[in-house]
């Protein structure tokens, strides 16, 4: 009957799930909602507006364009763009430090979504609650590519957990790096491990040793950061119910597998972004993880070595400053940390 009325029959191409941009969009949106609301999953609909905004303005990894542009082939302009004359920001306009921070924030979000064993009673994420200081540190000292990346394990309770700076002993962060600002608190805080920010009077021994060496060698922080940067393999600090620090190395192998996959990927993104030529692991754990990560992601021409970890639990090292200095000399990078070589 329809054909008699002049209605024509048209066929469409077969429906395939994988090539559909919209199906990809919906699946990614669903994954993001699940990840974001892993804890408070009954409130999944409370942030849909923000998810929509985030997806519309996120840059497509390979196309370097917003999803809206990929789907509809023209720019996405919202009321806020017209009101404040804010328009698309392309990848090459984003600073290196902001790209670094984005990788870190994505990493901490992924890590917090994992389920940890019953021994982990508290999780501290200083990239989140100490973001003010952490962003200051990154934006001040990570404005260019770096030859050397010092790789730590994860935040210590009196260092980065307080200041948001890797091995961030309070006096070093405040007086040598000249950073200042307020620090928030973890969602769940152990009473014997309070986060006090720059008001913390406890000293991070590892941080005092690490930065103390480079204060002595470099004199000023810019001489260190001209060629080097510091990054923790895992962004989270884990505490037991008693307040004992649990390092990633102390997790069982099956528990570490997914953690390592996530952290390896982020580490390789950081290495690529900073164009790192040498990774100096602070301890054997960091050295091993870096070696495995660059092998997995097939990153070439990167030397992976280590110096002893400055932790007081490292009883094998009697004079850490001497051991670390000798290793830097053997690696032929000691000149990177002297003011005379940095001024040329």
Descriptive terms for the model:
single chain; 344 residues; alpha/beta; Uracil-DNA Glycosylase, subunit E; four-stranded parallel β-sheet; three-stranded antiparallel β-sheet; 7 strands
Number of strands: 7
How many distinct domains? 2
Q: Provide the spatial order of strands within the biggest beta sheet.
A: 3-2-6-7
Quaternary structure of the protein: single chain
Largest sheet: number of strands, sense, barrel closure: 4 strands, parallel
Structural shape: globular
- CATH C-level class of the largest domain: Alpha Beta
In whole angstroms, how far apart are the ends? 87 Å
- Approximate helicity band: 40-55%
| CATH level-four homologous superfamily name of the largest domain | Uracil-DNA glycosylase-like domain
Binned strand content = 5-15%
Number of helices: 15
List low-pLDDT spans.
10-19, 82-88
Average pLDDT metric:
83
Radius of gyration from CA coordinates? 24 Å
CATH architecture of the largest domain: 3-Layer(aba) Sandwich
- Determine the structural class based on helices, strands and strand pairing: alpha/beta
CATH topology of the largest domain: Uracil-DNA Glycosylase, subunit E
**Elements, N to C (H/E):** HHHHHEHHEHHHHEEEHEHEHH
Protein name: Uracil-DNA glycosylase-like domain-containing protein
Family: Belongs to the uracil-DNA glycosylase (UDG) superfamily. SMUG1 family.
Organism: Timema douglasi
Domain Uracil-DNA glycosylase-like: 140-322
